[in-house]
Amino acid sequence: MINYTQGKSEEDSSISSEVMYRDLFLLNPQPMWVYDVETFEILNVNEAAVRHYGYSRDEFLRLTIKDLRPAAEIATMVSAVEVVRKHDKLYSSGGYKHQKKNGEIIDVNIQSNIIYIDGRKAELVLSTDITEKCKTDEKFKAIFEHTQDAIMICDDDGNCLDYNTAVVDMFGYSRNELDKISLFKLLKVRAGDLHAIWTRFLKGKVRNGKMHLIHKDGSVIIGSFNVKPNILPGMHLCVVTDITEKVLKSKALILGNERYKLILNAANEAIYDWDIERDKVEWGTGFKDIFGYDLAVYNNHIWSDNIYHEDKERVIREISAALNDPGREMLVTECRYVKFDQKVALVEHRIIFLRNVNGKAIRAVGSVRDITDYKQSLHRIQLQNEQLREIAWIQSHVVRAPLTRMMGLVELLKLGEYGDLGKEEILNLVQQSAAELDSVIKEIVNKADKVQTEDD
Fold first, then answer.
1. pTM for the full model?
2. 69-73, 115-119, 158-162, 389-393: lowest mean pLDDT where?
3. Is 34 exposed, middle or buried (0-12, 13-18, 19+ CB in 10 A)?
């Protein structure tokens, strides 16, 4: 075992230093090791590293840090160590790939500090496995990049901060052009109305609807949009679905009743054809499959009759307002709905209105889908991501201060250079820092256990 109190007699070694060493290194829940900067040799390793990487302690102490890297990563690691060799004191962190004993490749976040042990320059390393987080990030990235909906994140001035490939495809601009463009240039709105619309959006008064947009070549795109202001401070989300073709086809389908029936019978979602003038609704087979009601038994108003009582007035009011607005072609709303088994589901309801030349709604095509599981999963993932970010912040910021302070105090004790401070005062400061770090570590463990419990 490495002697971290070298230079002092056994009787001079304080209990607080032993507690500090045990808690900070041996009992730390995160994998840690110390290696020689010149030889790459691993000098000491804690139990968490032994468990996580699969080597026994004796095996671990016969390794170099090169053995913990995939072959393709070794050159990068050597270059990083070359930088460490040029400094006497250095804190560093970054993301890397490691390899366990069984060959499994994992993504890790490394935090390290230079220390000196028996005259040897070494580096103390803390490894955090972020493999699952990286997989989650990759899933979200895949959804972000490959969805057909255009997703944009804008700042308070409407400048595009980030966007997916669908934005490039939808509007015809290159990425270099979009980097310099304002969202306002994509909207077909009178110049005098832009400020008022944007202000209403920032205040959360505009959530979804239909808007005319402008392609680079000047052609008009009919877009169905959903927006969310301040997903992060000063960052606003806008998701646009190109419904141009859908709207144009819908207008041409007013007399195509047989085509509607084919769609209704083949659809997996709960889709309906509403003859507004006769107030007659024809549902697709998906309604019974999703909500459990037998449409041969229940009446024409099965949908409105079973909206959850707290949401019914709002939803009927929204549909009525959209129905009587000559310029409104689409409505998207969410509400709770009571299924046949009396379970309450969260549903998304989309309606496209078909109007005559005078703007009167004469027919509508709607779709209803159960989004309960999707919303719950999304909420759970968001909560877990927030907790993981908090844990990462604690590890990279809160842990660093007392750890750095203790390392400096231990160096003073080893060198016997106390300055204006007495030895007892330095030991008290070490003990205080150890207690502070012990509290932080317990908080990290509790939060990590909570995330694991919620995930299970």
1. 0.35
2. 389-393
3. buried
| R_g (Cα) of the chain, nearest Å | 31
Residues ≥6 apart with Cβ < 8 Å to 29: 48, 441, 444, 445, 448
Q: Give the chain's mean pLDDT.
A: 79
User: What is the rounded CA–CA span in Å between residue 362 and residue 365?
Assistant: 11
Q: Angle CA(163)–CA(166)–CA(168) in degrees, nearest 5?
A: 75
> For residue 358, what are its two tokens?
């005078």
Q: Angle 226-227-231 (CA atoms, 0-180°, nearest 5)? A: 140
β-sheet bridge partners, residue 214: 220
Q: Is 22 exposed, middle or buried (0-12, 13-18, 19+ CB in 10 A)?
A: middle
pLDDT tens digits along 175-211: 888 888 888 888 887 767 777 888 888 888 878 888 8
What single letter denotes the amino acid at residue 143?
Answer: I
Number of Cβ within a 10 Å radius of residue 183:
20
Which residue, among 375, 376, 374, 343, has the nearest Cα to 454 in the 3D structure? 376
- 64 near 39, Cβ under 8 Å? yes
- What gap in Å lies between CA 69 and CA 398, rounded to an integer? 28
Cα–Cα dist 272/260, whole Å: 9
Whether the CB-CB separation of 243 and 210 falls below 8 Å is answered with yes
What is the dihedral sign for C-alpha 184, 189, 192, 193? negative
- 297-302 long-range contacts (CB < 8 A, ≥24 apart) are none
Distances in whole angstroms, Cα of residue 258 to Cα of each of 124, 172, 252, 273: 73, 36, 13, 11
- Cα dihedral sign, 174-171-217-183: negative
The dihedral sign for the CA sequence 405, 406, 411, 414: positive
Backbone angles phi, psi at 133, to 5 degrees: -65, -40
Residue 105 is predicted with a pLDDT of 92
* Total length of the chain: 456
pLDDT digits (tens, 9 = 90+) for 203-254: 888 788 888 888 888 888 888 888 888 888 888 888 888 887 777 666 555 4
Q: 12 pLDDT band (50/70/90 cuts)?
A: very low
Q: What residues are paired with 31 via a beta bridge?
A: none
Q: Which two tokens stand for residue 266?
A: 């083949």
CA distances from 318 to 203, 209, 327 (A): 20, 12, 15
Strand 270-275: give its sheet, edge to edge.
280-283, 270-275, 361-370, 344-355, 330-338
- The sign one gets for the Cα dihedral 322, 323, 328, 330 is positive
